[in-house]
Design goal:
This protein is of the alpha/beta class. The protein is built from six helices and eleven strands. A hairpin with a 4-residue loop joins strand 3 and strand 4.
């Protein structure tokens, strides 16, 4: 597939132009900061792009404003009393220094106990908690992926979890491999399921076109609600960009 990237500026709004082997133009504003991307057929005239972008300027500015107003997590310092999230629930961190192996455990409905060696740095604590999130998400995913593979009628050859700064998920269509953002471990399970469905549907349709949306409407009718819920939650303290 031939893909060429360029940009267009309209009324101080920067739009990434992606030329693809597609039939129709597709405009999207992406979280978390409202990056704008216009996918267009390869041979679309620049003036046509400009006129289309101008016609959508009000829509663009509205969505960008919504994303920029989205709350951000403060920088995590990993001290007792700090708020952390797991599967959409808020927990209070309780740092416990001990001589044993570092670990994390949930106590009751509100406490997240982080056991570390005496003298552990902020980075040490962050690493322990990050690996705990990774294990939890990897334990949670097999059943969710299996469930939606059956619903959608596709089969991913492989899946994985990794820290991603630009998106919630990714799909390598040729290899049928999907990736999920580690940050999803902090989000409500239904939001995680929405991303799984989104990536699996890409095995049926590569592009975010009308056919893709029709599949989403069929398999998960309330996907827009879950997407909005995910995009309204505080995002990690990161300078995410596309």
């Amino acid at each position: 597939m031939n893909t060429k990237q360029e940009s267009l500026k309209i009324a101080n709004v920067e739009i990434d132009i992606v030329r693809k082997d597609i039939k129709n133009m597709h405009l999207a504003v992406y979280p978390p900061n409202g990056k704008i991307r216009l996918s267009v057929p390869s041979k679309t005239d620049e003036e046509v792009l400009r006129l289309f972008a101008i016609s959508k300027l009000g829509w663009i500015k509205k969505h960008v404003k919504n994303f920029q107003a989205q709350p951000r997590e403060s920088i995590r310092t990993y001290v007792s009393g700090e708020s952390h999230y797991f599967q959409g629930k808020r927990y209070i961190l309780n740092v416990i220094e001990h001589q044993g192996k570092s670990k994390v455990s949930i106590r009751g409905t509100k406490c997240l106990d982080l056991y570390v060696r005496r003298g552990s740095t902020r980075e040490d604590k962050a690493k322990v908690l990050k690996e705990w999130y990774r294990r939890k998400l990897k334990k949670q995913l097999p059943d969710i992926i299996s469930k939606w593979e059956k619903e959608i009628g596709v089969k991913a050859s492989d899946w994985g979890v990794r820290q991603m700064k630009t998106k919630w998920g990714a799909c390598n269509i040729e290899e049928k491999r999907i990736w999920l953002n580690l940050e999803l471990s902090k989000k409500p399970t239904i939001c995680l399921e929405y991303i799984v469905v989104h990536e699996l549907v890409h095995l049926l349709e590569r592009h975010h076109n009308d056919r893709f949306i029709q599949y989403m409407d069929t398999f998960m009718p309330k996907w827009r609600l879950y997407r909005n819920q995910l995009n309204s939650l505080p995002v990690v303290h990161n300078d995410w960009g596309y």
